[in-house]
Design goal:
The structure is a homodimer. Chain A is an alpha+beta fold. Chain A is 29% helix and 37% strand. Chain A has a single domain, classed as Alba-like domain (Translation Initiation Factor IF3), CATH 3.30.110.20. Chain A is elongated and about 45 Å long. The two termini of chain A are 27 Å apart. In chain A, 27% of the residues are buried.
Chain lengths: 95, 95
């Protein structure tokens, strides 16, 4: 997935890259004038999404407000075609 | 840490054990008559805490309501005595 595909409008999807990549992506969106950024992750990347939010809030954007936090589950098929499910998180950040 | 130490009153701290252990711990607390359970985790266990919440909500307690979700950071010293920080999550579940 390219950097562009993981970042549509105000959505940042956190995956396996260094935390700072996603922090910078969020700052870039805020700097474009957008007031709300959504940070989303699935499965084992959920912890990293929280790291991104915490680093933004504590280090880079101290007036950042954490809005709704939505937990959910995505059903999908794994590589062998079996039904499986994975937890998701979406955090709304407001400047 | 023993099972008792990780579960004080209405608090379930999610660590490295199987997800079902924590799911059962939450159900046990609800069954004792307590209306609110707090599910807490740090660092890489945050994803597992979301798995616990989602399994409870989707499979075992379909009328469960997710209340506040608090993200935070714990500062602590690592095994070499260096200051480090770790992200935390706490999810309030209401029966």
């Amino acid at each position: 997935m390219t950097e562009n595909a993981s970042q549509m409008n105000n959505l940042v999807v956190v995956g396996g890259k260094p935390t700072m990549n996603y922090v910078v992506a969020c700052i870039t969106i805020f700097n474009s004038g957008i007031q709300t950024v959504r940070v989303r992750a699935r499965g084992g990347h959920i912890s990293e999404a929280v790291d991104v939010v915490e680093m933004l809030r504590r280090v880079f954007l101290k007036d950042l407000k954490i809005g709704d936090i939505i937990l959910g589950t995505d059903d999908h098929k794994d590589s062998r075609g079996r039904e499986t499910s994975v937890s998701t998180i979406e955090v709304f950040l407001n400047k």
